[in-house]
Amino acid sequence: MHLDILLVLASAVVGLLVGLTGTGGGALMTPMLVLIFGVAPSAAIASDLLAALFMKPLGVAIHWRRRSVNTELVKFLSFGSVPAAFLGTFTMRMIGHSSNAEHELQVLLGCALIVGSLAMLSRTLFIESPHGGSDTVDVRPIRTVVIGAIGGFMVGLTSVGAGSLILVLLLVLYPRLRNDQLVGTDLAQSIPLTLSATIGTMMFSHVNLSLTSSIIVGSVPAVVIGSIISSKSNGYLLRRLITGVVLLSGIKYVGASPDVLGLSALATVLILVWLSARQHRRAGRSDARRSVPEAVEDVVTPLPSGFD
Fold first, then answer.
1. What is the value of pTM for the model shown?
2. In whole angstroms, what is the distance from residue 141 CA to residue 127 CA?
3. DSSP readout, 210-222?
4. Per-residue DSSP letter, 134
5. Neighbours of 300 (CB within 10 A)
6. Is 271 helix (H, G, I), strand (E, B) or coil?
7. Whole-number percent of the chain with pLDDT over 90
8. Residue 130 φ then ψ, to 5°
9. Residues 6 or more apart from 105 whose CB is under 8 A from it?
């Protein structure tokens, strides 16, 4: 088994970004393997799924300790995602490994990246505060199972969806659930989902152990470091930049011309600038609201004794 030093270093960069921002690894690792290292889409997806099994438990442990995992939601999501992920890997097997099949899979992966990046952008638009919302919600079993099935199938087919599509669909169904509960719940359910997809991938396709080992050696320690740093910093801008890169990668995957890719890049930059300005205005209003009680305390002084 041979370790590729360049791949180890590149995987470390991706792992650090995942730890810093919470962005799903499938939206970053697979495009890197295909676009930079020239790995076939099917091999990239298989290796990314297997490597994810070593990365995700670290994040789940943190959220479990913080009690930000809704176990009831995890249960119903898994009812849908586990069999659907297995079905997704079987579908990838049915597509085959010919050059035409790899091209079709690359287009499907591009569509998944575009949907995932748009889902991440919509999350930015709808979530106001990482601490807002409620600890408990009325669980809707059937709809939750359907969400798990949709996300699980996409993960099994393309390795993309667990950290973006499922999370946003949960947000639509449970808008009052706290942001940290959304993230923790999505991350917890992604473990059985990824395990199912990995088992299916190992049964239905060839896994490159050298490729996978290089990814694990580079990404796992970096995820830990990124998670530690993220608790002390604001990764808002970095998450937006990553979302833009994921969107452009998806557009390139589907075969867009250079002109279309250039216009898409310009539009992406404008959207990211608008989102950053929007976040800055929100932060200013929040600071202003917090300063009002302090100002009142400065103006209203206690009355002397006998004047109450």
1. 0.74
2. 23
3. HHHHHHHHHHHHH
4. B
5. 8
6. helix
7. 16
8. -65, -15
9. 41, 42, 45, 92, 95, 158
Q: Is it the case that residue 68 has pLDDT exceeding 90?
A: no
pLDDT of residue 133: 57
Q: For 39, which DSSP code?
A: -
- 3-class SS letters over 156-193: HHHCCCCCCHHHHHHHHHCCCECHHHHHHHHHHHHHHH
- The rounded distance, in Å, linking the Cα atoms of 110 and 130 is 29
User: Token pair for residue 41?
Assistant: 């889409």
Return the number of other C-beta atoms located less than 10 Å from residue 269's C-beta.
12
Cα–Cα dist 252/43, whole Å: 19
Selection from 209, 161, 230 nearest residue 4 by Cα: 209
Identity (one letter) of the amino acid at 263? L
Residue with tokens 């206690």: 302
Q: 299: pLDDT confidence band, cut at 50, 70 and 90?
A: very low
Cα R_g (the chain), whole angstroms: 21
